[in-house]
Amino acid sequence: MTPAARLSGAIDLLCAIQNAPRRPADATANAFFRERRYIGGGDRRAISTIVWDVLRGWRRLHWHLRDISGDISPRLLCSASLLLGGETMENVRKLFSGERYAQKPLTSREDMALKELEGKELSIQKQPIAVRLEYPDWLDSALRETFGNRLPDEMEAMLGTPTLDLRVNLLKGSREAAIRELRRESLQAEPTKLSPWGLRLDGRQPVTATQAFKDGLVEIQDEGSQLVVAAADARGEHRVLDYCAGAGGKTLALAMTMENRGHIVACDVHEKRLDGAVKRLRRAGVHNVERHLLVSGDKWAKRRAGSFDRVLVDAPCSGTGTWRRNPDARLRLTPEDIQELVIKQAQILDRAASLVKPGGRMIYATCSLLACENGQQIDAFLKRRTDFVRLPKEQMSELLPAELRNKAQFSLTPLRDGTDGFFACVLERVVADVKAEETAEAAVTTPEA
Questions:
Q1: 367 flagged as catalytic
Q2: From the annotation, which residues make up the binding site for S-adenosyl-L-methionine?
Q3: Which segments in the chain show pLDDT lower than 70?
Q4: Which of 317, 367, 372, 425 is catalytic?
Q5: Binding site: which residues?
Q6: Full DSSP string of 52-86
Q7: Which of 62, 115, 336, 443 is found 20 to 30 A from 238 (Cα to Cα)?
Q8: Exposed/middle/buried for 344, CB within 10 Å: 0-12, 13-18, 19+?
Q9: pLDDT tens digits for 179-197?
Q10: Does domain 3-127 have CATH number 1.10.940?
Q11: Domain residues of the chain, as ranges?
Protein backbone atom coordinates (compact mmCIF):
# COMPACT_ATOMS: atom_id res chain seq x y z
CA MET A 1 0.00 0.00 0.00
CA THR A 2 1.12 3.56 -0.65
CA PRO A 3 1.50 5.99 2.28
CA ALA A 4 -1.71 7.71 1.12
CA ALA A 5 -3.60 4.38 1.09
CA ARG A 6 -2.31 3.56 4.57
CA LEU A 7 -3.49 6.92 5.88
CA SER A 8 -6.88 6.36 4.25
CA GLY A 9 -7.09 2.95 5.95
CA ALA A 10 -6.21 4.53 9.29
CA ILE A 11 -8.95 7.14 8.88
CA ASP A 12 -11.48 4.40 8.06
CA LEU A 13 -10.39 2.38 11.11
CA LEU A 14 -10.62 5.42 13.38
CA CYS A 15 -14.16 6.04 12.05
CA ALA A 16 -15.08 2.44 12.92
CA ILE A 17 -13.68 2.87 16.44
CA GLN A 18 -15.62 6.11 16.97
CA ASN A 19 -18.80 4.43 15.74
CA ALA A 20 -18.47 1.75 18.44
CA PRO A 21 -17.56 3.86 21.50
CA ARG A 22 -18.15 1.14 24.11
CA ARG A 23 -16.24 -1.55 22.23
CA PRO A 24 -12.49 -1.92 22.84
CA ALA A 25 -10.50 -0.47 19.95
CA ASP A 26 -8.44 -3.62 19.50
CA ALA A 27 -11.61 -5.68 19.02
CA THR A 28 -12.84 -3.19 16.41
CA ALA A 29 -9.44 -3.27 14.70
CA ASN A 30 -9.42 -7.08 14.60
CA ALA A 31 -12.84 -7.11 12.94
CA PHE A 32 -11.78 -4.32 10.57
CA PHE A 33 -8.76 -6.26 9.31
CA ARG A 34 -10.63 -9.58 9.15
CA GLU A 35 -13.01 -7.98 6.69
CA ARG A 36 -10.05 -6.68 4.66
CA ARG A 37 -7.76 -9.67 4.36
CA TYR A 38 -6.12 -8.09 1.33
CA ILE A 39 -4.27 -5.75 3.71
CA GLY A 40 -0.87 -7.32 4.41
CA GLY A 41 0.85 -7.62 7.77
CA GLY A 42 3.18 -4.66 7.27
CA ASP A 43 0.33 -2.43 6.14
CA ARG A 44 -1.82 -3.53 9.10
CA ARG A 45 0.95 -2.53 11.48
CA ALA A 46 1.43 0.83 9.75
CA ILE A 47 -2.31 1.60 9.83
CA SER A 48 -2.57 0.53 13.48
CA THR A 49 0.40 2.70 14.42
CA ILE A 50 -1.28 5.81 12.98
CA VAL A 51 -4.55 5.06 14.79
CA TRP A 52 -2.95 4.17 18.12
CA ASP A 53 -0.86 7.36 17.99
CA VAL A 54 -4.13 9.28 17.66
CA LEU A 55 -5.71 7.39 20.57
CA ARG A 56 -2.64 8.00 22.78
CA GLY A 57 -2.74 11.69 21.99
CA TRP A 58 -6.53 12.08 22.01
CA ARG A 59 -6.90 14.89 24.58
CA ARG A 60 -3.82 16.75 23.37
CA LEU A 61 -4.94 16.59 19.74
CA HIS A 62 -8.38 17.93 20.65
CA TRP A 63 -6.71 20.68 22.69
CA HIS A 64 -4.70 21.77 19.64
CA LEU A 65 -7.82 21.67 17.45
CA ARG A 66 -10.08 23.30 20.06
CA ASP A 67 -10.65 26.53 18.10
CA ILE A 68 -11.76 24.86 14.89
CA SER A 69 -15.44 25.19 14.02
CA GLY A 70 -17.50 22.07 13.54
CA ASP A 71 -16.68 18.46 14.30
CA ILE A 72 -13.14 17.23 14.76
CA SER A 73 -13.14 14.41 12.24
CA PRO A 74 -10.87 11.35 11.97
CA ARG A 75 -9.29 13.06 8.94
CA LEU A 76 -8.30 16.01 11.10
CA LEU A 77 -7.13 13.86 14.00
CA CYS A 78 -4.89 11.63 11.87
CA SER A 79 -3.46 14.62 10.01
CA ALA A 80 -2.88 16.59 13.20
CA SER A 81 -1.12 13.59 14.75
CA LEU A 82 1.25 13.40 11.78
CA LEU A 83 1.99 17.12 11.88
CA LEU A 84 2.55 17.24 15.63
CA GLY A 85 4.78 14.20 15.22
CA GLY A 86 7.09 16.16 12.92
CA GLU A 87 5.58 15.74 9.45
CA THR A 88 5.43 18.77 7.11
CA MET A 89 2.23 20.33 5.84
CA GLU A 90 3.40 19.83 2.27
CA ASN A 91 3.72 16.08 2.77
CA VAL A 92 0.36 15.84 4.55
CA ARG A 93 -1.34 17.57 1.62
CA LYS A 94 0.19 15.02 -0.74
CA LEU A 95 -1.44 12.21 1.25
CA PHE A 96 -4.84 13.74 0.45
CA SER A 97 -4.38 13.63 -3.32
CA GLY A 98 -7.81 12.24 -4.18
CA GLU A 99 -6.18 9.62 -6.35
CA ARG A 100 -7.00 5.90 -6.18
CA TYR A 101 -7.05 4.61 -2.56
CA ALA A 102 -6.22 8.11 -1.25
CA GLN A 103 -8.48 10.46 0.67
CA LYS A 104 -10.12 13.41 -1.06
CA PRO A 105 -8.12 16.66 -0.95
CA LEU A 106 -8.21 18.68 2.24
CA THR A 107 -10.93 21.30 2.39
CA SER A 108 -9.97 24.93 2.93
CA ARG A 109 -11.24 24.62 6.52
CA GLU A 110 -9.10 21.54 7.19
CA ASP A 111 -6.06 23.01 5.46
CA MET A 112 -6.26 26.23 7.46
CA ALA A 113 -6.64 24.41 10.79
CA LEU A 114 -3.81 21.99 10.11
CA LYS A 115 -1.41 24.61 8.79
CA GLU A 116 -1.48 26.24 12.24
CA LEU A 117 -0.04 23.04 13.75
CA GLU A 118 3.04 22.74 11.53
CA GLY A 119 6.22 22.84 13.60
CA LYS A 120 4.39 22.58 16.94
CA GLU A 121 4.70 19.79 19.52
CA LEU A 122 1.94 17.52 20.76
CA SER A 123 2.69 18.15 24.45
CA ILE A 124 3.29 21.63 25.81
CA GLN A 125 3.31 23.02 29.35
CA LYS A 126 0.40 25.33 28.56
CA GLN A 127 -1.97 22.36 28.48
CA PRO A 128 -3.81 21.42 31.69
CA ILE A 129 -2.01 18.54 33.39
CA ALA A 130 -4.84 16.05 32.80
CA VAL A 131 -4.82 16.96 29.10
CA ARG A 132 -1.04 16.81 28.80
CA LEU A 133 -0.93 13.43 30.57
CA GLU A 134 -4.05 12.03 28.90
CA TYR A 135 -6.25 11.05 31.82
CA PRO A 136 -9.86 12.01 32.68
CA ASP A 137 -10.22 15.11 34.85
CA TRP A 138 -12.46 13.25 37.29
CA LEU A 139 -9.70 10.70 38.03
CA ASP A 140 -7.18 13.32 39.15
CA SER A 141 -7.70 12.91 42.91
CA ALA A 142 -7.70 9.08 42.72
CA LEU A 143 -4.47 9.03 40.73
CA ARG A 144 -2.85 11.52 43.11
CA GLU A 145 -3.88 9.26 45.98
CA THR A 146 -1.91 6.46 44.34
CA PHE A 147 1.13 8.36 43.08
CA GLY A 148 1.37 11.61 45.07
CA ASN A 149 4.10 13.85 43.64
CA ARG A 150 5.16 11.04 41.27
CA LEU A 151 1.95 11.52 39.26
CA PRO A 152 3.46 13.48 36.31
CA ASP A 153 6.33 11.04 35.82
CA GLU A 154 4.14 7.94 36.22
CA MET A 155 1.49 9.19 33.82
CA GLU A 156 4.13 10.34 31.34
CA ALA A 157 5.39 6.75 31.26
CA MET A 158 1.83 5.64 30.50
CA LEU A 159 1.97 7.62 27.25
CA GLY A 160 4.80 5.55 25.83
CA THR A 161 4.56 2.74 23.32
CA PRO A 162 4.54 -0.58 25.20
CA THR A 163 7.00 -3.35 24.60
CA LEU A 164 5.82 -6.77 23.48
CA ASP A 165 6.37 -9.26 26.28
CA LEU A 166 6.39 -13.03 25.88
CA ARG A 167 6.34 -15.85 28.38
CA VAL A 168 8.45 -18.88 27.59
CA ASN A 169 6.52 -22.11 28.08
CA LEU A 170 8.92 -24.28 30.07
CA LEU A 171 6.79 -27.31 29.21
CA LYS A 172 8.16 -26.95 25.68
CA GLY A 173 11.68 -25.59 26.18
CA SER A 174 13.99 -23.13 27.92
CA ARG A 175 14.23 -19.36 27.70
CA GLU A 176 17.54 -19.72 25.86
CA ALA A 177 15.94 -22.06 23.33
CA ALA A 178 13.11 -19.60 22.75
CA ILE A 179 15.57 -16.75 22.15
CA ARG A 180 17.39 -18.86 19.57
CA GLU A 181 14.17 -19.87 17.81
CA LEU A 182 12.95 -16.28 17.59
CA ARG A 183 16.30 -15.05 16.30
CA ARG A 184 16.07 -17.59 13.48
CA GLU A 185 13.04 -15.61 12.37
CA SER A 186 14.78 -12.23 12.82
CA LEU A 187 13.11 -11.33 16.12
CA GLN A 188 15.58 -10.07 18.71
CA ALA A 189 14.19 -11.01 22.14
CA GLU A 190 15.88 -10.18 25.42
CA PRO A 191 15.20 -11.69 28.88
CA THR A 192 12.95 -9.58 31.10
CA LYS A 193 14.39 -8.22 34.35
CA LEU A 194 11.74 -9.44 36.78
CA SER A 195 10.00 -12.53 35.41
CA PRO A 196 12.09 -15.71 35.26
CA TRP A 197 10.21 -16.79 32.12
CA GLY A 198 9.85 -13.48 30.30
CA LEU A 199 11.18 -12.23 26.98
CA ARG A 200 10.85 -8.72 25.60
CA LEU A 201 10.62 -7.38 22.07
CA ASP A 202 10.43 -3.76 20.93
CA GLY A 203 7.16 -2.52 19.49
CA ARG A 204 4.75 -4.45 17.31
CA GLN A 205 6.24 -7.70 16.03
CA PRO A 206 4.62 -10.56 14.05
CA VAL A 207 5.09 -13.07 16.88
CA THR A 208 2.01 -15.12 16.13
CA ALA A 209 3.42 -15.98 12.71
CA THR A 210 6.59 -17.50 14.19
CA GLN A 211 7.18 -21.21 14.61
CA ALA A 212 8.03 -20.67 18.27
CA PHE A 213 4.51 -19.35 18.85
CA LYS A 214 2.81 -21.97 16.68
CA ASP A 215 4.64 -24.73 18.56
CA GLY A 216 3.57 -23.33 21.94
CA LEU A 217 7.10 -22.42 23.02
CA VAL A 218 6.10 -18.79 23.68
CA GLU A 219 2.89 -17.01 24.64
CA ILE A 220 2.16 -13.27 24.55
CA GLN A 221 1.85 -12.12 28.18
CA ASP A 222 2.94 -8.90 29.87
CA GLU A 223 5.73 -9.33 32.39
CA GLY A 224 3.50 -7.98 35.16
CA SER A 225 0.90 -10.65 34.48
CA GLN A 226 3.63 -13.28 34.66
CA LEU A 227 4.63 -12.00 38.11
CA VAL A 228 1.06 -12.38 39.35
CA VAL A 229 1.33 -16.08 38.43
CA ALA A 230 4.72 -16.27 40.15
CA ALA A 231 3.12 -14.87 43.32
CA ALA A 232 0.57 -17.72 43.29
CA ASP A 233 3.39 -20.24 43.80
CA ALA A 234 1.22 -23.06 42.39
CA ARG A 235 2.89 -26.47 42.53
CA GLY A 236 2.30 -29.90 41.10
CA GLU A 237 0.61 -31.27 44.20
CA HIS A 238 -1.97 -28.45 44.32
CA ARG A 239 -5.59 -28.07 43.32
CA VAL A 240 -5.80 -24.63 41.74
CA LEU A 241 -8.74 -22.46 40.73
CA ASP A 242 -8.38 -19.67 38.18
CA TYR A 243 -11.63 -17.97 39.11
CA CYS A 244 -11.80 -15.30 36.37
CA ALA A 245 -9.83 -17.19 33.76
CA GLY A 246 -11.04 -15.49 30.59
CA ALA A 247 -9.19 -16.96 27.60
CA GLY A 248 -6.69 -18.67 29.88
CA GLY A 249 -3.51 -16.60 29.78
CA LYS A 250 -2.73 -17.05 33.47
CA THR A 251 -4.14 -20.59 33.41
CA LEU A 252 -1.44 -21.56 30.92
CA ALA A 253 1.26 -20.06 33.12
CA LEU A 254 -0.10 -21.81 36.22
CA ALA A 255 0.01 -25.15 34.40
CA MET A 256 3.63 -24.47 33.54
CA THR A 257 4.65 -23.73 37.14
CA MET A 258 2.84 -26.93 38.16
CA GLU A 259 4.77 -28.88 35.50
CA ASN A 260 1.48 -30.13 34.05
CA ARG A 261 0.69 -31.95 37.28
CA GLY A 262 -2.01 -31.41 39.88
CA HIS A 263 -5.37 -30.05 38.78
CA ILE A 264 -6.49 -26.62 37.57
CA VAL A 265 -10.07 -25.47 37.12
CA ALA A 266 -10.47 -22.45 34.84
CA CYS A 267 -13.76 -20.65 35.47
CA ASP A 268 -15.46 -17.74 33.80
CA VAL A 269 -18.94 -16.39 33.17
CA HIS A 270 -18.27 -15.92 29.44
CA GLU A 271 -18.47 -19.09 27.38
CA LYS A 272 -16.67 -17.56 24.38
CA ARG A 273 -13.68 -16.68 26.55
CA LEU A 274 -13.41 -20.20 27.91
CA ASP A 275 -13.83 -21.68 24.44
CA GLY A 276 -11.01 -19.45 23.29
CA ALA A 277 -8.71 -21.15 25.80
CA VAL A 278 -9.04 -24.60 24.17
CA LYS A 279 -6.73 -23.88 21.25
CA ARG A 280 -4.19 -22.18 23.51
CA LEU A 281 -4.14 -25.09 25.97
CA ARG A 282 -3.63 -27.58 23.17
CA ARG A 283 -0.86 -25.54 21.58
CA ALA A 284 0.94 -25.20 24.92
CA GLY A 285 0.75 -28.95 25.59
CA VAL A 286 -1.28 -28.42 28.78
CA HIS A 287 -3.46 -31.30 29.97
CA ASN A 288 -4.13 -30.66 33.68
CA VAL A 289 -6.88 -28.07 33.13
CA GLU A 290 -10.63 -28.46 33.44
CA ARG A 291 -12.87 -25.64 32.22
CA HIS A 292 -16.08 -24.65 33.99
CA LEU A 293 -18.67 -22.11 32.89
CA LEU A 294 -20.26 -20.29 35.81
CA VAL A 295 -23.99 -19.84 35.26
CA SER A 296 -26.85 -18.53 37.34
CA GLY A 297 -28.03 -21.02 39.97
CA ASP A 298 -24.92 -23.15 39.59
CA LYS A 299 -24.23 -25.31 42.68
CA TRP A 300 -20.67 -26.01 41.57
CA ALA A 301 -19.05 -23.56 44.01
CA LYS A 302 -20.98 -24.82 47.04
CA ARG A 303 -19.96 -28.41 46.34
CA ARG A 304 -16.30 -27.40 46.17
CA ALA A 305 -16.18 -25.04 49.14
CA GLY A 306 -12.84 -25.13 50.96
CA SER A 307 -11.21 -27.52 48.48
CA PHE A 308 -8.55 -25.48 46.64
CA ASP A 309 -4.93 -24.88 47.63
CA ARG A 310 -4.71 -21.81 45.43
CA VAL A 311 -7.45 -19.52 44.14
CA LEU A 312 -6.39 -16.84 41.68
CA VAL A 313 -8.78 -13.91 41.34
CA ASP A 314 -7.77 -11.81 38.35
CA ALA A 315 -10.64 -9.44 39.01
CA PRO A 316 -12.50 -7.38 36.43
CA CYS A 317 -11.22 -3.84 36.87
CA SER A 318 -10.88 -0.40 35.33
CA GLY A 319 -7.84 -1.44 33.29
CA THR A 320 -6.09 1.83 34.12
CA GLY A 321 -2.81 -0.05 34.31
CA THR A 322 -3.07 -1.05 30.64
CA TRP A 323 -3.52 2.43 29.20
CA ARG A 324 -0.25 2.13 27.27
CA ARG A 325 -1.72 -0.80 25.32
CA ASN A 326 -5.35 0.28 25.38
CA PRO A 327 -5.36 4.09 25.24
CA ASP A 328 -8.98 4.09 24.12
CA ALA A 329 -9.93 2.71 27.56
CA ARG A 330 -9.28 6.19 29.02
CA LEU A 331 -12.08 7.52 26.83
CA ARG A 332 -14.63 4.85 27.79
CA LEU A 333 -14.13 4.83 31.56
CA THR A 334 -16.74 6.62 33.70
CA PRO A 335 -17.15 7.26 37.45
CA GLU A 336 -20.13 4.90 37.36
CA ASP A 337 -17.90 2.16 35.98
CA ILE A 338 -15.57 2.48 38.97
CA GLN A 339 -18.45 2.36 41.44
CA GLU A 340 -19.88 -0.77 39.83
CA LEU A 341 -16.48 -2.46 39.60
CA VAL A 342 -15.65 -1.92 43.28
CA ILE A 343 -18.91 -3.60 44.27
CA LYS A 344 -18.37 -6.46 41.84
CA GLN A 345 -14.78 -7.02 43.01
CA ALA A 346 -15.92 -7.30 46.64
CA GLN A 347 -18.58 -9.84 45.69
CA ILE A 348 -16.11 -11.91 43.69
CA LEU A 349 -13.58 -11.86 46.54
CA ASP A 350 -16.19 -13.13 48.97
CA ARG A 351 -17.28 -15.93 46.64
CA ALA A 352 -13.76 -16.98 45.80
CA ALA A 353 -12.72 -16.97 49.47
CA SER A 354 -15.22 -19.73 50.26
CA LEU A 355 -13.36 -22.02 47.85
CA VAL A 356 -9.96 -21.72 49.58
CA LYS A 357 -9.05 -24.56 51.96
CA PRO A 358 -7.65 -23.73 55.43
CA GLY A 359 -3.94 -23.16 54.90
CA GLY A 360 -4.57 -22.36 51.24
CA ARG A 361 -4.00 -19.04 49.52
CA MET A 362 -6.04 -16.58 47.50
CA ILE A 363 -4.23 -14.27 45.10
CA TYR A 364 -6.13 -11.11 44.23
CA ALA A 365 -4.90 -9.18 41.21
CA THR A 366 -5.96 -6.27 39.03
CA CYS A 367 -4.45 -4.27 36.20
CA SER A 368 -5.63 -1.09 37.93
CA LEU A 369 -3.75 1.90 39.32
CA LEU A 370 -6.55 2.91 41.70
CA ALA A 371 -6.40 2.35 45.46
CA CYS A 372 -10.16 1.73 45.66
CA GLU A 373 -9.72 -1.37 43.48
CA ASN A 374 -6.49 -2.50 45.10
CA GLY A 375 -5.29 -1.97 48.66
CA GLN A 376 -8.58 -0.55 49.89
CA GLN A 377 -10.43 -3.53 48.43
CA ILE A 378 -8.15 -5.90 50.35
CA ASP A 379 -8.48 -3.90 53.59
CA ALA A 380 -12.26 -4.10 53.37
CA PHE A 381 -12.17 -7.83 52.63
CA LEU A 382 -9.95 -8.56 55.65
CA LYS A 383 -12.45 -6.76 57.88
CA ARG A 384 -15.20 -9.04 56.57
CA ARG A 385 -13.18 -12.25 56.68
CA THR A 386 -11.13 -12.64 59.85
CA ASP A 387 -10.01 -16.11 58.71
CA PHE A 388 -7.75 -14.53 56.08
CA VAL A 389 -4.49 -12.62 56.53
CA ARG A 390 -1.86 -11.25 54.22
CA LEU A 391 0.70 -13.97 53.68
CA PRO A 392 3.82 -13.48 55.87
CA LYS A 393 6.61 -12.13 53.68
CA GLU A 394 8.93 -15.02 54.51
CA GLN A 395 6.42 -17.35 52.82
CA MET A 396 6.20 -15.42 49.56
CA SER A 397 7.06 -17.30 46.39
CA GLU A 398 10.71 -17.73 45.53
CA LEU A 399 9.72 -17.38 41.88
CA LEU A 400 9.35 -13.65 42.50
CA PRO A 401 12.37 -11.36 42.23
CA ALA A 402 13.90 -10.33 45.55
CA GLU A 403 12.47 -6.81 45.42
CA LEU A 404 8.90 -8.14 45.31
CA ARG A 405 9.37 -10.96 47.79
CA ASN A 406 9.51 -8.79 50.91
CA LYS A 407 5.77 -8.17 51.20
CA ALA A 408 2.52 -9.94 50.44
CA GLN A 409 1.14 -6.99 48.50
CA PHE A 410 2.87 -5.25 45.62
CA SER A 411 2.19 -2.98 42.68
CA LEU A 412 3.94 -2.55 39.34
CA THR A 413 4.07 0.46 37.00
CA PRO A 414 5.56 1.21 33.58
CA LEU A 415 7.84 3.90 35.02
CA ARG A 416 9.33 1.90 37.87
CA ASP A 417 9.13 -1.66 36.54
CA GLY A 418 8.72 -1.44 32.76
CA THR A 419 5.52 -3.49 32.95
CA ASP A 420 1.87 -2.62 32.64
CA GLY A 421 0.28 -1.35 35.84
CA PHE A 422 -0.58 -4.28 38.11
CA PHE A 423 -1.56 -4.91 41.71
CA ALA A 424 -1.34 -8.25 43.50
CA CYS A 425 -1.93 -9.41 47.06
CA VAL A 426 -1.45 -12.93 48.45
CA LEU A 427 -3.84 -13.88 51.24
CA GLU A 428 -3.73 -17.00 53.41
CA ARG A 429 -6.69 -18.69 55.02
CA VAL A 430 -5.52 -19.40 58.53
CA VAL A 431 -8.44 -20.51 60.72
CA ALA A 432 -12.05 -21.43 60.32
CA ASP A 433 -14.41 -18.52 60.89
CA VAL A 434 -17.88 -20.00 61.21
CA LYS A 435 -19.73 -16.69 61.00
CA ALA A 436 -17.71 -15.56 57.99
CA GLU A 437 -18.22 -18.95 56.37
CA GLU A 438 -21.98 -18.78 56.81
CA THR A 439 -22.08 -15.26 55.37
CA ALA A 440 -19.92 -16.26 52.42
CA GLU A 441 -21.88 -19.45 51.74
CA ALA A 442 -25.11 -17.47 51.59
CA ALA A 443 -23.49 -15.14 49.08
CA VAL A 444 -22.06 -17.82 46.78
CA THR A 445 -23.83 -17.26 43.48
CA THR A 446 -22.57 -16.80 39.99
CA PRO A 447 -20.42 -13.66 39.62
CA GLU A 448 -21.70 -11.06 37.21
CA ALA A 449 -20.07 -10.52 33.82
A1: yes
A2: 268, 314
A3: 432-449
A4: 367
A5: 268, 314
A6: HHHHHTHHHHHHHTTTSSS---HHHHHHHHHHHTT
A7: 443
A8: middle
A9: 999 999 999 999 999 999 9
A10: yes
A11: 3-127, 223-429
